[in-house]
Design goal:
77% of the residues lie in helices and 0% in strands. The protein has 14 helices and no strands. The longest helix has 38 residues. The N terminus and C terminus are likely disordered.
Length: 496
């Protein structure tokens, strides 16, 4: 049974491309499908990898002629993620309207241009501008990859395609760590961005040759809503990142938090009144979509709290080189890939709520275990902690992604993938901001060099991990409850 959300023109929350009015899916030959799947997964992996790769460059950027403060280091990391998250949903609508393949190719070009600008930056403002430009390119390409992938997959392979795409997103962080480590072992921090330029251009050529063109949809662009979305996220991150330096009760920080709340309220009000909002708030009445979005956000909150701290811990405390640091986290990707294929199977057998609940519990457990690590922790033990987290992410992410995609109307698949992408990147940005803020507060109070500095950093890291684990556990309980409610609700129905 289906119903519509009014005023926006929307159809039932059935699985992607399964509605009666959807055009036939041009699956092509198996070889062509495999090429498209590989290309789409490669694109999203590269976009996601840049979120994590920058973390390995933090020590070199901190010691460079830019002389960034702790807060500025966080902005170097989070500017990309902020723009990425804020533009994903409108970028999905843009792809629906003007053509997903064209938007995907444009996104790859903008991404490469941002990397080029970052690589040639002589000052902090130019570096931040380059990071923002790359984030805009990533926002354009990521939702388009999901739409192209679903369009190219036969009905019986759509769930597997979503799982493959989710795996690529998940291992993007680890790929960024490993690839960035190889570059930074031998080159200055600018070399990291130079490496992304030919990579993005190679993907552009591959996509141009392999990806099919998809019929355009009648999606509307909501520029005011998009601006409110970016402004609200920016205000929230400003408060979190600048709080330690300016003071938590200072006028700028307090004002930023108040602005975030006000802008969020205005965004909801706008979404309820606009004829074609960038995101209809009433969609969140669907328990599976709401729980899936929050679950994706908290999963990446925990994972990117790890990525931000891990590179610094292994280099500052354990004395690893950049290459050793990157290689040390590679098993995390292997563990995630090994478990992901069982995530959807587990959801089919045990249910979405149980599978996601176990996954989020393992992520929290991994963070708590990592909070016990210090300079004397053997790598084998540290590896076990990482694998606990990778198993949790591998179980949770495919199920949560499928819950969101399956709840969105087929003709708005770009918006659906944009929604889960926005939740993912906003969660990553918040994870980086929260744990980075804890580090800047606690580590700034540590004095001395060598062992004293390592001890201060380790203590700050432990607190950051424990806070992140607490957030994952508390929010995870709400996610599990929402998925259980969604399982009992009538499938495929959008509340009017």
């Amino acid at each position: 049974m289906t119903s519509t959300v009014s005023p926006p023109d929307s159809s039932a929350g059935s699985p992607p491309d399964s509605s009666p009015n959807s055009p036939p899916t041009p699956v092509g030959t198996p070889a062509r499908r495999r090429s498209v799947t590989a290309a789409m997964c490669a694109c999203v992996l590269v976009a996601q990898s840049l979120v994590a790769a920058i973390n390995l460059a933090i020590p070199k950027i901190a010691a460079s002629g830019l002389h960034p403060s702790p807060a500025q280091l966080l902005w170097i990391v989070d500017t990309y993620v902020l723009v990425f998250a804020g533009l994903l949903i409108p970028a999905g609508a843009l792809g629906d309207r003007v053509g997903r393949k064209g938007v995907l190719l444009t996104g790859l070009g903008v991404f490469a241009a941002g990397a080029l600008l970052s690589a040639s930056a002589a000052g902090l403002p130019v570096l931040l501008a380059g990071r923002a430009l790359s984030g805009a390119g990533a926002a354009l390409l990521v939702p388009a990859t999901m739409s192209v992938l679903l369009h190219s997959s036969p009905p019986d392979r759509k769930a597997g395609a979503v799982a493959a795409w989710s795996t690529a997103v998940g291992i993007g962080g680890m790929a960024g760590n490993a690839g960035g480590a190889l570059i930074l072992q031998y080159l200055p921090w600018q070399g990291l961005f130079w490496g992304y330029v030919p990579l993005a251009l190679a993907l552009l050529s591959w996509v141009a040759a392999a990806a099919p063109r998809i019929p355009r949809q009648t999606a509307a662009l909501d520029l005011p809503g998009s601006a409110l979305l970016v402004l609200g996220a920016a205000a929230l991150l400003f408060g979190i990142i600048e709080g330690p330096g300016l003071g938590w009760t200072s006028v700028p920080v307090t004002g930023a938090f108040v602005m975030a709340v006000v802008v969020c309220a205005v965004f909801v009000r706008h979404g309820l009144r606009a004829a074609h909002p960038v995101l209809d708030p009433r969609l969140f009445r669907l328990p599976r979509l709401r729980a899936g979005s929050i679950g994706i956000a908290v999963t990446f909150f925990g994972m990117f709290a790890l990525f931000y701290v891990n590179a610094q811990f292994l280099q500052y405390v354990k004395g690893y080189s950049p290459l050793q640091t990157g290689c040390a986290i590679v098993p995390l990707a292997v563990g995630m890939m090994a478990v992901t294929k069982y995530g959807m199977r587990g959801a089919q057998r045990a249910g979405e709520a149980r599978t996601v609940g176990v996954g989020l519990a393992l992520i929290a457990a991994g963070l708590l275990l990592l909070s016990t690590a210090d300079a004397h922790t053997p790598y084998a033990c540290y590896l076990v902690f990482l694998l606990v987290m990778s198993a949790g992410a591998g179980l949770a992410m495919p199920t949560l992604s499928h819950a969101i995609v399956a709840s969105v109307p087929a003709r708005s698949s770009g918006m659906g993938s944009g929604l889960q992408g926005a939740a993912r990147e906003l969660g990553a940005a918040l994870g980086i901001a929260v744990v980075g803020t804890v580090l800047s507060v606690r580590f700034a109070s540590g004095t001395g060099d060598g062992a004293a500095a390592a001890t201060a950093f380790t203590a700050a890291m432990a607190l950051g991990y424990r806070i992140a684990a607490g957030v994952v556990l508390v929010v995870g309980l709400a996610v599990v409850r929402g998925l259980r409610t969604g399982a009992r609700a009538e499938p495929g129905r959008i509340p009017a």
